[in-house]
Input
Amino acid sequence: MNREEKKALTKSKILSAAEKLYSEKGFVEVSIEEVSKAAGVGKGTVFLHFGNQDELMGTVLSQLLETFDQEMEKKGHELATLEEYLLLHLSVLAYHEDLYFHFITQRLLLGKSVNYTYIGLQAAFSHHFEKCVKRELSLPLDVVFTSWIGMVHYYLENRDLFGGKNIISKNKEKWVAHYLILLNEGGIKK
Output
């Protein structure tokens, strides 16, 4: 294994350890020292690959965006309806549910650069969402998207009241169906 391959492997180990810890404990509770121990590397190695805690957090969160983009590339051309998009959106979030839960509940406690990642995530989600909305709905994108994200975040932030962990996987079809009923019965469909 050459030097570049070793660097890439080390970086991958650090990201995997950080994602696991952030998913389990949240962002605020995890130190660089914990990440380095979990990855089996020194603290200095973590800082060598990621200049600071915010950069590490942002990179971990960017993986969520990458997963979404990969799924959209694979299935995006097949998505004919808003319902299909919403189900795909929830599937990606379900795969990273604990990480996303901690992110949305602790976001305001994190650094500015990490919060920019949140804006990037929502922009990517809304970009793809917009394509479906234009075909099917007569409301402005911001109203429809904000209602959707608000509903998802509400259930996630209160998941202890609605069935605990894995709430997205357990409820995604029901959430999409109810959301679409609200849109349809509200006379919003074109």
User: Anything to note?
Assistant: The mean pLDDT is 88.
